[in-house]
Amino acid sequence: MRGGWSAAAGFAVRLGARLLFLLVAGRLFGATLFGAFSLAVAVVELAVTIGAIGTKRTLFQFLDEHGPRAEGPLAHVAIDAAVLVAVTSTLLAVAVMGVAAATPESVLPASTARALWILAPMIGGQALLDLFSAATRWRHVIRYEVVGRSIVEPYVGIVATLAAVRLGATGDGLLIGYIAGTLAALTYVAAGARRSFGGFGLRSYRVRTGTLLVMLQGTVSNTLTDFLNALYARLDLYLVGALLGESAAGVYGIARQVRTPIRQVRQSFDGLLTPIVARTLAATGPAKTGEALASAARLILTIQLPVLIVLAALGVPILNAIGPGFAAGYWALVLLAAAESIQGAFGVGDLIFVYRKPELGLWITAVSIVTGLVAGFALIPWWGVTGAGVSVLISYSIRAVHRRSVLARHFDVKAPLTYSAGPLMSAALGTGAALLVARLVTSPSAQYVAVTLTGLAVFGGAVMMWLRATGSTLQMQGFVASARTDQPAGTRSALRHDRRC
Q1: What is the structure's pLDDT at 162?
Q2: Residue 106: is it exposed, middle or buried by C-beta count within 10 angstroms (0-12/13-18/19+)?
Q3: Reported pTM
Q4: From its phi and psi, is residue 208 left (phi > 0), alpha (psi between -120 and 50) or beta?
Q5: Taking a C-beta distance cutoff of 8 angstroms, is the pair 58, 134 a contact?
Q6: Which of 6, 19, 75, 356 is in the most buried spot, having the most CB atoms within 10 Å?
């Protein structure tokens, strides 16, 4: 929980950097250049899911299961993974650069192709950053990831972008900032990982081909699942760019960035949930783990919904402040924020698939991609960026229902629908009260403040009343907090008297 709160604080700091970055990007570069940058970054981040070969999550399991049997320092297991990630990412970067250079301008606009060619080497940088961040979390040290991702990467990127503009490299300012932020964060987090392991022991390290092959074989399913999840998360942006062009992609990209606080609520829990779910599954099985995850989902939803209310109330002035023309993405922002609330809260169930049956998670994601494609092609040409937001909301909603059905059928995970009814009803009441105030207050500046405060106050009051009336709690319950270290490794998964939170 301390790690979760640390990550949340880090995301709050990162949010300030993101807002500053959006102001710089929107006012200095405009929708078209930002659209090309957003499309290129989306491709790079998609490739990272393959380059990282699933180690962002599976490294925990590999260190737990194979670390005690490994020859040499335990850090060599993380170095093995780093070697594999570096090789895979380099091959991917070369492939992306080749495609960007060879694709005709009629298919891939020149500005987007140039951005892709320049940013492709950062596939390795981002993949290694994920890997070393996971390594520090396994050592129960999260400050390096928080500082690296929330302070070093974004703020170094902003400074580098402004410096590039100052020196006359306006067209490449966003690209230079991305590269500088990635390399600075990687340097910091890698140094933190080395310190948390007590050194990497590089002098005695030797590449172990057999270990690399075993590691690669054990990550195939999860890597493919991560790739499809990343494709699914960015599919709407790709469709907007392909169907509406770079300028529309810039407007839509800003809307996606502004809704990021809701996504960061869920991400702030990942550092806690990813390792602790693996331990709880081993100790109690999928059904009990599903009950514990339901309590986490309710807490995440309760935090996300007031953020959604704020974005709905203040979306227009925020987009106007970023730059002219970006307010056209308001409804896309609201729809994306609602969709992210659904995925962020109920998507925690995917962690059971990661450790038990990755192929089920793969199937759910594949169905979701098809749903998103159909909805996107049907709605974007008619409604523009708003249609893209509608397609994402439809796709995420269907995915939540599908996930629930698969969890019940294969793992007997049956969280009642009423479990999250309190936060959802409170959000509905808060939204209704905010709409009523919006009709009564006519002054725009006063209206934004009154609507926001009313929505939040009614939501908070309704949640408190629901908790008192039902005797419910927002605490996470049922997770195994720590394993007994005085027992043989083979018996730890059977322990029933572990300390719980």
Answers
A1: 95
A2: exposed
A3: 0.82
A4: beta
A5: no
A6: 75
Return the biggest CA–CA distance within the chain: 72
Query: CA 329, CA 327: separation in Å to the nearest integer?
Result: 5
Residue type, 310: V
Q: How far apart are CA 369 and CA 357, in angstroms?
A: 19
Structure tokens at 445: 């500046």
Identity (one letter) of the amino acid at 223? T
> What is the spatial distance between Cα 112 and Cα 127, in angstroms, rounded to a whole number?
22
The H or E element spanning position 371 is: helix 358-411
Partners of 500 in the β-ladder: 480
Query: What's the length of the chain?
Result: 501
CA separation for the pair 263, 251 (Å, rounded): 19
pLDDT band at 485 (very low <50, low <70, confident <90, very high): very low
pLDDT digits (tens, 9 = 90+) for 318-365: 999 999 899 999 999 999 999 999 998 998 888 888 778 888 888 998
DSSP assigned state of 72: S
- Which tokens is 406 given? 């698969």
Q: Which amino acid is at 194?
A: R
Pairwise CA distance, residues 308 & 340, whole Å:
9
- Alpha-carbon gap, residue 329 to 248, rounded angstroms: 9
> How high is the pLDDT of residue 499?
38
* DSSP H stretches of helix in 103-219: 110-119, 122-138, 143-147, 153-166, 173-196, 209-217
Q: Under a CB-based contact definition with an 8 Å cutoff, are residues 256 and 336 in contact?
A: yes
User: Is residue 235 pLDDT above 60, yes or no?
Assistant: yes
Can you tell me the distance from the alpha carbon of 43 to that of 46, in angstroms, rounded to the nearest whole number?
A: 5
